[in-house]
Structure formats: C-alpha cells, structure tokens
Design goal:
Blueprint: H1 3-6, H2 9-42, H3 47-61, H4 79-91, H5 106-139, H6 151-158, H7 161-177, H8 184-208, H9 210-213, H10 223-226, H11 231-253, H12 255-275, H13 282-302, H14 307-329, H15 332-338, H16 343-346, H17 348-371, H18 378-400, H19 403-426, H20 431-452
Helix pairs in contact: 7-8, 7-13, 8-11, 8-12, 8-13, 11-12, 12-13, 13-14, 14-17, 14-19, 17-18, 18-19
Length: 454
C-alpha cells in the first residue's frame, strides 16, 4: 500500500492544508518583497519611519497598553525606634500648675493670668518689631550725613593731597634752582598758589570721572564715588581753590607764573581728562602737565623763561614715563574695566619701550645741565649711578614685561626723583660765581673797547 492510503482521513486533510499554505506563502513572498522595494523607491524608508510605524501599530492594536506605577512598600519600622519613642514617653515631665488659694475666686485669678499673658505677648511683639524695622532700614538706601570732623579728610582725598605735595615740591625745586637770590616771601606765595591750583585741578578731575572711577578697584572709594560729599560741594571747593590760587600767582608773584598755572589747570581738566578715554596720547599730555610746576617755580623766581626752566621741565617730563608706565602696567585690568585708553592696555610693547627710552634720556639731560651753566660738572658724574640703576630697571621691565619688574621700576622712581633734584641742588652754581663771571666778562669787553678806541 502507498503512504497516502496508510494515513487516516483527518491526517491527510491536515497535510493537504499545510501544503496549500506553504505553496501560497512561497508565491506571496516575492510579491511582498517587490512591493517593499517599490515603496522604498517611492519613499526613503528610514529608521525614524520604522519607529513611527511601530508606534502606530502599538496604538492601534494595543490600545489597552499602559504603564502602571509600582506601589511603594510601607517602610519597615525598626524596633529600635519603638524603643526610643517609648523612652521619650517615659522621660516626659508633666509640669504641676500652682493651685490658686481658696479665698481667691476663680474668675479673678483667670483674669489676672490673661492680663499677664497679654502683657508678655505685647512686650515680645514690641521687641520683635524694632529688629524687623532695623533690618528693613539697613536694606534701604541711606543718605550719608556729612560731619564737620570728617570734612578735612574728605577734602584732602578729593584734592589728592599726596599728588599735590609732589607738585609743590617740584615747583619748590624749580624756585631753588633759579640763579637769583632766595626770596622767602615770593617762595611761600608761589608754593601756596601752586598747591591751590593743583587742588582745584584734581577736584575737577574727580568730578568728571565719577562714573568711570566707580568701576575701578583703585578709585571706587573716592569721596564723590561713595557719595560722602555732593558734586555741588566738590565744584565749589575746586572754585574756592582755583580762583584764589591763580590770583595769588598773578598778583603776588608775577603774571607769567599765573598764566602758567591757569594753563596747567585747563590742560589737566579739559585736555588730559577726556583724552584718557579716547587715545593713548593722554600719557604725553599728562607728562606736559607734570613738567610745568618746576617751570612755574623757576619763573616765580626769575620772572622769565630761561634754558634752565626748560631743562627742569624736561627732566620731569622724562621721569614721568617710567613712573606712570610702570604703575599702569599693574593696573591694566582696572583701566580696561574703567574704559580708559592706556598704553599698558592697548599697546603694551610701546609702553615698555617708551619707559626704557626716557630712562636713558635722564642720563643725557643730566649731562646737559653743566653745559647750560646751571650746575657744575660733578652733577652728571654723581647722578650717573642712580640714572644707570633706573635705566637697568627700565631694561628689565622692557625684557621681562611682568608685574615684578614693573613694581621695582615704580618704587625706584619714587626715590629717584627727589634724590636727583637734591644732587642737582647741591651741585648748583652759586649766584656769586655767576656774578663774578659776568663782571669778568663785562670787564674784558670794556678793555677790548678801550684798546680798539684810538
């Protein structure tokens, strides 16, 4: 018998059904594959598209699909906490209230207790409210009250008293170096007028630079920035110093010195101050401002502009570049934050080069002094070591370009200038020597004229 006959009828039917499914599946697989290829040609099937189809299938055929949060299990209480709670219950102390006397009725006792409680509550409320009021007052803006005891110190900081003292000392050096007899009254009037003019210029400078000084750490504690005085008071103080100072120099000394003082105030307040935020040329203008006071001292003594006055002005002019450039090198962050255009911020290489150049210029200017018959030839010899030392520090600053070298150059400039002026004063040619020399020259000229005459 064949294998088909051996099989029972149900098994034969099942086999035929399976064979039919396989046949149809084999026929449909190529058609489905071709259909997918056509879809792929029509649409770019990407990974995101398959994810979209997957989500659509899940939402259509599994609508009951959802996430269920797992309930949290109850915390297990340790037996130690129960023991601790039991111990705390045991340690509770019950306060025993005092029993009122029998004679006193209950209503009076309760009313008195209520009054005591109200008084204590009122006292605590009164004690709490001032603290809250004080805290609110501390947070609010307050107007700073000006005391008369603090006014001299505030005005001294407004006028930059240390810088004013340096200006007066350089003017005194110019007066002392003049080849004329020393006049004490004229010296005191010139020093006082120069100091008042410097106070006026510095006060106006701080008045103009309040919004910029507030951004710098070095100047944020100035009186106008902190609001210790009003701008009106600062302007009045500047006017009360400037007008008498210029009048004193003009009427008490001579008109040339008064004109130089007025020109210096204008140059400092109207040229140097606004140029600090515009161009690096402000450093050269500021050096001219610092060079004028010794010239004022010379003109106060002699009444004229001579070669000696220009030499003193040139020494002060060159000294200011290593002094200020070294100072500004350590304050570059402050100057950039305040919006000032300084060489150390915008042109650092030029800043170091100019400082070294003017350090070397001090050696040449010291050599010119005896040529102009202001000092003896011992002055360039004695001043050579200190000039070489500041030049060496200027070269170190030019080479290293760091804070350490700039700091050393700055502190050297602080003692270099007074020592140089002191050596210059000690090597000054006396007025009697110049008179004798003038008389000799005059006598020789007279003899020559007599010889020429028949």
């Amino acid at each position: 018998m064949s294998a088909a006959r051996r099989c029972s009828p149900p098994r034969a039917l099942a086999g035929l059904f399976v064979w039919h499914l396989k046949k149809t599946g084999i026929r449909q697989v190529p058609c489905q594959f071709v259909h997918l290829c056509r879809v792929a040609n029509d649409r770019l099937i990407t990974f995101q598209y398959f994810n979209f189809l997957k989500r659509m299938y899940v939402t259509q055929y599994n609508k009951d699909l959802s996430q269920r949060a797992k309930p949290k299990s109850d915390p297990i209480v340790s037996p130690f906490r129960e023991l601790q709670q039991f111990d705390q219950e045991k340690k509770v102390i019950h306060k025993v209230r005092p029993v009122p006397p029998v004679q006193q009725p209950l209503s009076e006792a309760s009313s008195r207790n209520e009054l005591r409680e109200k008084k204590s509550a009122a006292e605590t409320a009164d004690s709490v409210t001032p603290v809250r009021a004080e805290s609110k007052d501390d947070r609010q803006w307050k107007e700073m009250k000006l005391r008369l005891d603090d006014l001299p110190g505030i005005l001294a900081r407004l006028s930059k008293i240390k810088l004013t003292a340096l200006v007066v000392s350089t003017a005194s050096a110019g007066f002392a170096m003049a080849p004329v007899p020393f006049d004490l009254t004229c010296f005191l009037l010139a020093s006082l007028g120069t100091g008042l003019a410097s106070c006026a210029a510095n006060s106006i400078n701080q008045f103009f630079e309040v919004p910029f000084d507030s951004n710098m750490n070095r100047t944020k504690n100035r009186p106008l920035v902190r609001g210790q005085i009003s701008p009106l008071l600062a302007v009045c103080f500047a006017a009360s110093c400037g007008v008498p100072g210029i009048a004193l120099l003009t009427l008490g000394v001579n008109p040339l010195t008064g004109a130089l003082g007025a020109f210096n105030i204008f140059l400092y307040t109207c040229c140097y101050t606004p140029m600090k935020r515009m161009s690096i040329a402000n450093t050269w203008v500021g050096a001219v401002v610092g060079a004028i006071p010794p010239v004022m001292g010379w003109t106060a003594a002699t009444g004229s502009l001579d070669a000696g006055a220009l030499l003193l002005g040139g020494i002060l002019y060159s000294w200011q570049f290593p002094h200020f450039n070294a100072l500004s090198w350590g304050l570059r962050e402050d100057y950039s934050r305040g919006g000032y255009c300084m060489m150390s911020v915008t042109h650092p290489a030029l800043c170091r080069r100019v400082a070294l150049r003017h350090c070397l210029a001090l050696i040449g200017l010291s050599t010119v002094a005896p040529v102009l018959d202001i000092t003896t030839w011992t002055f360039p010899v004695i001043s050579l070591p200190i000039n070489l030392y500041i030049s060496y520090l200027g070269f170190r600053f030019y080479r290293d370009a760091d804070r350490s070298s700039s700091r050393k150059l700055f502190f050297c400039s602080l003692w270099h200038l007074p020592m140089l002026l002191l050596v210059m004063f000690t090597c000054k040619k006396s007025f009697l020597e110049k008179e004798d020399k003038g008389d000799l020259l005059g006598g020789n000229r007279g003899r020559a004229m007599e010889i020429r005459l028949p």
